[in-house]
Amino acid sequence: MSLFNQLPMQWEFIISKLKSSVTVVDATSPDLPLMYVNEHFTWLTGYTFEESIGRNCRFLQGTDTDPETVLYIREALSKQQSIKVEVLNYTKSGQKFWNELNIDPIFNESGECLYFVGIQYDISERKYAEQQLKTAATSAEKTSRGQLEFIGKLNHELRTPLNGIMGMIELAGMGDMNEEQKEYLELARQSGEALLNIVNNSLDIAKLGRGKMGIEHIEFQPLKLIQQIMKTYEPAAMNKQIRILCHADLNVPDVLWGDPLRLRQVLDNLLSNAIKFTERGEVQLQVDVTEHSHDQTMLTFSVRDTGIGIPSDQIGQLFEAFTQSDISHARRFGGSGLGLTICKELLGLMNGSITVESVEGRGTEFRVTIPFLSGQSILNTG
């Protein structure tokens, strides 16, 4: 008997009419066959209910489906773990489409996994828009600042309605909702934040390309800034069940002069990436005084992780716009590939530098070195 034959009729009707694809897989069978697909699945893929039931979902895969992503999905299913991943699939007619795939195992009271329930969102338009944005930005960088001006204006126009959407999501979250509504609203919030991050990064790239990114020299407390940054990332690390640590040289001055906003932007990017690409172990930020004089203090910030690492032949591409070390990582973890480019450009404006060392499968270390002025040197030049 179908799982959904055991549910009240109104629930089967609701699930069948959802505007997202819903599938149910028999976890007790070695081949993991489909037991149920809703109407949106048949509309999206072109396969009828009868053509789908009893088959493994691999029939949706094709030539350009990333093998590493497929392996990642299989490993999660074998471990009976929840998973969220982006995968390229094919319709019955051979047309490609991108899926954001969310799979959860369903256990009985004895702890036996009976089903895998999948919810798929068609994100083909978003992927196309991202590719168009990448193409436009790359073309602008190679041609003229006039095109960078256009990208800057375009992203300003995008950011205004996006901020409005994010605000409405926050307001909606203040009302009374059931768990299902909360889950949908959280998915909307995450998608909005991801898109807003791409827009903000594109704006920074446009400013840097036009020479309109300024650097300040103001008084700030480096240790206090580091403490604030680490607190920001503690929830993300806790959510992934990895450790996040910070060690600071006792000789770091209480006060320095520089640009704390741009420093934070650089460290935010490095820590965010470290947590994103680390599945187990830890992320550590180390702050050291590497040079110190009456006028200047040189600080080195080392961000180490125990994540997936970077292939040695791809390290040289890291700081190129819209580049990630492996396209399969971009599919699995997301991201525009702009962050490290912005970091390198900002560090150049601050007379700083960035280096990276990595061992694939064992972890990565980024080392950022920046000179800061002392308060005394500012007084002498003022």
Could you describe the 3D structure shown?
The protein has 382 residues and is of the alpha+beta class. The protein contains twelve helices and twelve strands. The strands form three sheets. A five-stranded antiparallel sheet has the order 2-1-5-4-3, sandwiched between helices. Strands 7-9-10-12-11 form a five-stranded mixed sheet. Strand 11 and strand 12 form a beta hairpin. The N and C termini lie far apart (82 Å). The C terminus is likely disordered.
Identify the notable features of this structure and list them briefly.
382 residues; alpha+beta; five-stranded antiparallel sheet; five-stranded mixed sheet; 24% strand
Shape designation? elongated
What is the mean pLDDT?
80
The poorly predicted ranges are: 324-336, 378-382
Give the quaternary arrangement of the chains. single chain
Rg, alpha carbons:
24 Å
- Secondary structure tally, helices: 12
- Please provide the ordered H/E string of secondary-structure elements: HEEHHHEEEHHHEHEEHEEHHEEH
Helix content: 40-55%
What spatial order of strands do you see in the largest sheet?
Answer: 2-1-5-4-3
Describe the secondary-structure layout.
Blueprint: H1 9-17, E1 21-26, E2 34-37, H2 39-45, H3 49-52, H4 67-78, E3 83-90, E4 96-107, E5 113-122, H5 124-143, H6 145-172, H7 179-209, E6 218-220, H8 222-239, E7 243-248, E8 256-258, H9 260-276, E9 282-292, E10 296-305, H10 327-333, H11 339-349, E11 353-359, E12 363-373, H12 375-381
Parallel strand pairs: 7-9
Antiparallel strand pairs: 1-2, 1-5, 3-4, 4-5, 6-8, 9-10, 10-12, 11-12
